[in-house]
Amino acid sequence: MKHGIVDWIKLVHADVICIQEIRASKEVCEEIFKDCGYQMIVNPAHKKGYSGTMVLTKIKPLLIEFGFGFLDEEGRVITLDFGSFKLVNAYIPNGSSRLDVKLKFVEKFIDYISLLEKEKPVIICADMNTAQTELDLTNPKSCVNHSGFLQEERVLQKKIIDCNFVDILREKHHNKLLITWRSYRSRILGDDFGWKFRFDYIYCSDRLFSIVQSADILNLEYSDHLPISVDFGDIYANKQ
Hints:
about 240 residues; Deoxyribonuclease I, Chain A; six-stranded mixed β-sheet; 7 helices
């Protein structure tokens, strides 16, 4: 907030903005974003100052759902039905201290999005807390035994692709090193300091990928994560 994200939100004028790990109550979010011109949908964690997700949308959803039946008290999933497609905003648990919980969450999450995808096309905006390939982090050899790049995490996450989803950034930037997370310290000390990862992903049903106009990582220093921007064209008129 101190870096002026509200001004950027007003300037970028996106149809939908998905935010993960808000670590704030609904009341705090409503006070901060009340003048942004968006409908605000907040799924806070029961635990104060922890986890949570939020969606800002200019398009009114037909249906709003919170959670999917596992760790719902942590506010990690919001699903919106926009008629011709569904949007899922998700914050996957960090596996550093509870890897078993993270893996179980991802397994159940994949089952959940697979069921949604059978109904209609789906877009997923997620902090996955995992780098998928060696092109998604700066020091793969040093990270193979650390959560965020463990083989079991990567194999499980790849199952999203196997469920008829497309990793949009990777498909648009095939052989490019993609980074969306770096520590606050590395921002000060420069590009050569510390590990950097692509933890953040936007997936879509493969039948939606043909309408994607562009996909980019925005170099904006509002947090330790960098925002992803995807242009789906006139998706609200899409009837696939």
